[in-house]
Amino acid sequence: MDNTERHAHELDAAYPSPARSQFMQLPAAGGAYPLAAYFAGNSLGLQPVTTATAVNEVLGAWSQRGVHGHFTGEHPWMYYHEYVNEALGRVVGAKPEEVSVMNTLTVNLHLMLASFYRPTAQRHKIVIEDYAFPSDSYAVRSHARLRGYDPDEAIMRLRPRAGENVLRTEDVIEVIEQQGASIATMMLGGVNYLTGEWMDMAAITAAARKAQIFVGWDLAHAAGNVPLSLHDWDVDFAAWCTYKYLNSGPGAIAAAFVHERHLADRDIQRLEGWYGNRAETRFGMNPIIDTPSTAEAWVLSTSPTLAIAPIRASLEIFDSVGMPALRQRSLQLTDYLISLLDELATRAPLEIVTPREAARRGSQLSIRINTDVAEFAKRMDENWGVIPDDRKPNIIRMAPIPLYTSFHDCWRGADAVARELHG
Ligand SMILES: Cc1ncc(COP(=O)(O)O)c(C=O)c1O
Question: Which of 101, 171, 269, 375 has a 20 to 30 Å separation from 113 between CA atoms?
Fold first, then answer.
């Protein structure tokens, strides 16, 4: 393994980034280079250069057309959320009618649980990972309470085996096979926010479906990161935000997936609002909803046009690169960063907790360093212009983003870790 800076430049010359020039690069806070090496795209993706144009197009239409913008112009706002369905479907492996952008992620998790948590006395448990993102824990606990169950009893948290960092697929499947009759719903992170573990979504979904459990995925860290086939895997529901790998800006609009199987079910439990009424009859102002057989039936409110414009810009980049090429680049970059960190680990107290197997990880590498990780991340930024992020208690997350991270960024990232650890 050639760990020199020269070799990093050679790799960049041999395998150029597919879309780096299409993203705004940040200035470096410190170190020898003018631009930051950005590894926090798993938290907030960089801004595409076309985002401002997309947002300005909406602002321009508003300034010129006022209320008529809802129905006229090149992109009438009334349908604005529908414009992204095809491209979004390609990113997550769904039919356009199975996805919709709406709300924010936690809200969408609630909307999905309203439909896909249907507890009965015998079958009322919800399964999540023990280290699920806090919002997911709060969401499932509140649904258990809402339906009259004790969350401490109703929520089942899956833990890795003693001494291990991540869940094993066979252990998850064993829980389903042995306790499935008591489980109503499973809601797991596709890629775990803390460990970077990519669950075997196909195998777990198949086992859960066989046990008649509704199975949903929080794809905050998976959408735009790893190839997904939500439709073919037969997933019941999913929800994800677009500010991470989907580069749509802080607090950007989220999305949800509902499998085609459920779309024609008129009696499904669901929280409803007027944008969940078919567009053709929405302005009929009827008291009884007329829902479409699409995921749009879960949309509640007026299309938040300004919030959707950034994701339109971002999805154009995903379409131009394509998920297969993106995945290939992601593996090249992470393999390279892993080998640089492995060399370091022989001399320094760090451990990569993300699974090494390609099929079990996306772009994010979670590195355990037993130090004050917030302080460590700050020093990487201020001293070397390298931006990772950190999660308590002891994880530094570094995600080389296939659309814009370079091999030289990875070299700088590993070099900054080394310098901070060795002093
Ligand atoms: C895995 C996961 N789930 C849920 C959330 C909450 O998202 P939001 O604040 O958009 O509701 C996050 C936020 O980072 C997350 O990483």
Answer: 171
